[in-house]
Amino acid sequence: MAPEPPPGAPPVRSVTLDAGGIPLSGLLALPAQPVPRALVVALHGSGMSAGYFDSRARPGLSLLELGAGLGYAVLALDRPGYGASAAVLPEGQGLQGQTAAVLAALEGFVRDRDPGAGVLLVGHSGGGRVALAAAAAARGGLVPLGVDLSGLGRRFLVEPWRLPGPDLPGEWRRHWGALRFYPPDAFRLGQRLLRPVPAVEMRETLRWPEMYPSVAAGVGVPVRFTFAEQELWWRHDGEALEELLTPLMGASPEVARQAHAGHNISLGWAARTYHLRVLSFLEECLLARDTAVGRVATGADRDLKKVDADLT
User: Per residue in 17-72, pLDDT tens?
Assistant: First the structure.
C-alpha cells in the first residue's frame, strides 16, 4: 500500500476538461488561497499518464502536492490519446492536434478559474514536445511564462527501432536508470501509471529530430531543460546540446543536470529536488517579467520620486 499523504497536504482530485469536444482527464491540486500565485500545467511522457507528476511512493515527491502547498495551482493532464480521450482518439494525435487540444482545454480552464500571475508549462519526455509546441502556438493569456522540460532532447541516444511503441515497451531500464534512484514502491506503483503509446504519436516521435527546429523557432519565452544523471534515451553531450539550444534563439534557454536520477525523474528520490527547481524557475520567470525594462519603469520612477520628495 502506498504511504498516506502527510497531514494537511493539499488534496489532489480528478478533473475532466473539454478540449473542443475531446475530453481530457487529469489531476488538479489547488492552494489554500482563492487565487493561486500561478498555474503549473504538467504534461506526461509517452506511455505514461497524469499520475506521473503525483508520485505516491513516498510523501513529498508529488509535484501537485508540493506546488499547491507553496501557493500554486497544479494541473497535470492526460494528453490526447490517453486517459478519457483514449476511446475518442484510439490512434492518438500528432503534435499539431495535441497542441490544439491542450490549448483548447486550458482556455476553458482559465476562463473558469483565475490562474494567478500566469502559466508555466512543464513537460516530461513526449509531453515536452507538446509543451514546446504549445508555447509557440499560444496567444493572449495562454502564452506561458516559461517552459520547463525533462527527459527530452533533440538527438536520440539509441537506434529508432529500440524506442517504445504501441506493442513495444522499449528497453525497460532506459526509462529508469539505476534502481537505487527510486523508492522501493516506485516500480509497483509505477505500473498503474503505464498506458499504451498511441500509434500516431509513436510514428511522429521518430521524426522529432527534424521537426524540432521549426517548433523551437516559435518559442519566445524562457526554456529550461533538465537531464538526469542517467538519461539514457537522449544525447546530452556538448555537440547535442548545441544542436538543442541553437534553434531557441528567442527563448533564453538553459540546461540543468539532476544528480541521483534516471529518465523518470518525477518518480524517483530526486523528484522533490527537481520539482523545487521547477518552481524556482517559475519564480525566476515571474521576476524577469516583473522587472522587464519599460514594463514597470514608469510606476517605479513615480514611486521613487515620491520617496525622494518625502525624504527631503
Answer: 999 999 999 999 999 999 999 999 999 999 999 999 999 999 999 999 999 999 99
Round to whole Å and give the CA distance between 127 and 232.
17
d(C-alpha 203, C-alpha 198), whole Å: 9
Residue 57 three-state SS: coil
Cell of 210: 527534424
Q: Write down the pTM of the prediction.
A: 0.91
Instruction: Give the span between the Cα atoms of 204 and 270, in whole angstroms.
Output: 30
Whose CA is closest to 145, among 279, 13, 267? 279
Instruction: Give the strand pairing for 39-43 and 73-77.
Output: parallel
Decide: 58 and 26 in contact? Cβ < 8 Å. no
For CA atoms 205, 211, 212, 215, the dihedral sign is negative
Cell matching residue 258: 539532476
**Quick check: 9 and 65 in contact, CB under 8 A?**
yes
Q: Of 22, 29, 27, 37, whose CA–CA distance to 8 is shortest?
A: 29
Residue 156, beta-bridge partner list: 234
Among 4, 66, 3, smallest CA distance to 29 is for 66
Dihedral of alpha carbons 154, 160, 165, 171, sign: negative
Classify each residue of 93-125 as buried b or exposed e, where b means 16 or more C-beta atoms within 10 Å of its C-beta.
Answer: bbbebbbbbbbbbbbebbeebebbbbbbbbbbb
Domain boundaries, the chain: 12-311
Instruction: Tell me the per-residue pLDDT of 232-267, one tens digit each, with 9 for 90 and over.
Output: 999 999 999 999 999 998 889 999 999 999 999 999
CATH fold of 12-311: Rossmann fold (3.40.50)
